[in-house]
Design goal:
Beta-lactamase; disordered C terminus; alpha+beta; three-stranded antiparallel beta sheet; 15 strands; ten-stranded antiparallel beta sheet; globular
């Protein structure tokens, strides 16, 4: 199984734990929640998690009002989960963290369920053996960044300044002249991971490990990756390189740096702690988590032929080699709010938003739309991984349920599959009657 497929397999199983709550009449009848919001005070972490069952994902744009994609400004809120339901999530998450034997310092989980209520919680340490995790901590979200980039590109399509059929040569003629093998690849193929251009992550990571504070030239990364060989356009395969090219397209079309485009989009969605960092600017606001490459991260890298000893805290490593494909940070509450917009679909005309969800296999076990993963059972979203952190965000558009989570150990959702999943059967059976 590929690393992407492993990550999505973990996400799919986690989402199956909340699937029964979405649209379950029996559960909804037993646990009706009001539209009012309330707050549970955070408690210090000892053997128990810090929780903050605050407002459900809230944005100024939860549904478009017309075909223009303009927001209707509807706010969606739910009350906190019952103590009993929240305890099931806490117990399962704590068991999963305990199975890490100290290798995974912390875990953050947020569930917003119209039938069950809201539960945000942090477990373990934001800074290993030093600072307890809290539900307000920032963390890096890796490839969930792609959902922002895809939305920004699709906004250009909606505005008529770009077409899904436009090619690299149409939008970036200079790049096409330098790299003729990708000249005829379309915007849609780039968004949908059907370009034939390979992934660059493990081409770049060895250099990052050797020179962790240097800024990677992402234009050079595009050239080096493509010159290494590409498959014919239309060949499926997960590739962050696609999104670097889409970022260059955004800059060409808007006249703005791509980070400004994405950060403005995040602000438009009402997100206050979600930022794409660039250059030497790598700081996250307080409170934030540190990221780690411990034994799990080492195993993840070894599977890709990169041999390294455990590095411990890698928070000082520059994460901006991910660019518009992986360099954002966020919080549970912001990720939940973004997921509740359909990962930006509420900012798009309905027909384009629906087209975005039409998916096709890119590797075995992974169906991908236009910058979004189809997890199955009505769930859509994305996973993320960058040195120090792993993340997941998902939304069920039919029920409105949202599930987000991250850890501060690289590769945790890819290598640590068996033990982590073994911790969750009680959550499925007790919380949702599965």
């Amino acid at each position: 199984m590929t690393r992407v497929a492993r990550r999505v397999a973990v996400a799919a199983v986690c989402l199956s734990l909340v699937a029964a709550a979405c649209g379950s009449d029996d559960d909804a009848a037993d646990d009706t929640v009001s539209a009012e919001t309330s707050t549970v005070e955070s408690a210090p972490i000892t053997d128990a998690p810090t929780t903050d069952s605050t407002d459900a994902p809230t944005t100024d744009s939860t549904a478009p009002s017309d075909d223009s994609g303009e927001s209707a400004g509807v706010e969606v809120q739910t009350a906190p989960m019952s103590d009993a339901d929240a305890a099931v999530i806490d117990d399962a998450a704590m068991e999963a963290l305990a199975l890490g034997e100290g290798v995974i310092p912390g875990m953050w989980v947020g569930v917003w369920d119209p039938a069950k209520g809201v539960h945000l919680a942090a477990y373990g340490d934001a800074v290993a053996e030093e600072t307890a995790a809290t539900a307000e901590d920032s963390g890096r979200i890796g490839s969930i960044t792609k959902t922002f980039t895809a939305t920004a590109v699709l906004q250009q399509v909606a505005a008529g300044t770009l077409s899904l059929d436009d090619t690299v040569a149409d939008v970036l003629p200079d790049l096409a002249a330098e790299l003729p093998d990708i000249a005829e690849i379309t915007v849609e193929q780039l968004l949908a991971m059907q370009s034939g251009i390979p992934e660059y992550e493990f081409l770049v990571v060895p250099d990052v490990l050797e020179n962790p504070t240097e800024v990677v030239d992402l234009d050079e990364v595009i050239v080096e990756t493509v010159e290494g060989g590409v498959e014919p356009a239309g060949t499926a395969g997960y590739s962050t390189t696609n999104y670097l090219i889409l970022g260059d397209m955004l800059e060409e079309l808007t006249g703005q740096p791509s980070e400004e485009v994405l950060n403005e989009l995040a602000a438009d969605a009402g997100l206050t702690t979600t930022v794409l960092t660039v250059g030497d600017d790598i700081e996250m606001p307080d409170p934030s988590s540190d990221g780690y490459v411990n034994e799990i991260g080492v195993s993840y890298l070894a599977a890709e032929g990169i041999d390294v000893e455990p590095l411990g805290d890698v928070s000082s490593y520059n994460p901006n080699w991910g660019g518009v494909g992986g360099s954002m940070y966020s919080t549970l509450e912001d990720l939940g709010a973004w997921a509740a917009t359909g990962f930006g679909n509420d900012f798009l005309p309905p027909e384009l938003a629906a087209q975005r969800l039409e998916s096709a296999p890119i590797v075995e076990g992974v169906d991908y739309g236009l910058g979004i993963i189809d997890f199955g059972d009505g769930w859509y979203g994305h996973t993320g991984s960058i040195l120090g952190w792993d993340s997941l965000a998902a939304h069920n558009p039919e029920t409105g349920a949202v599930f987000v989570a991250y850890t501060n150990e690289y590769g945790a959702s890819n290598v640590f599959v068996g033990p982590v999943l073994a911790a969750f059967p009680d959550l499925a059976s007790t919380l949702y009657g599965l």
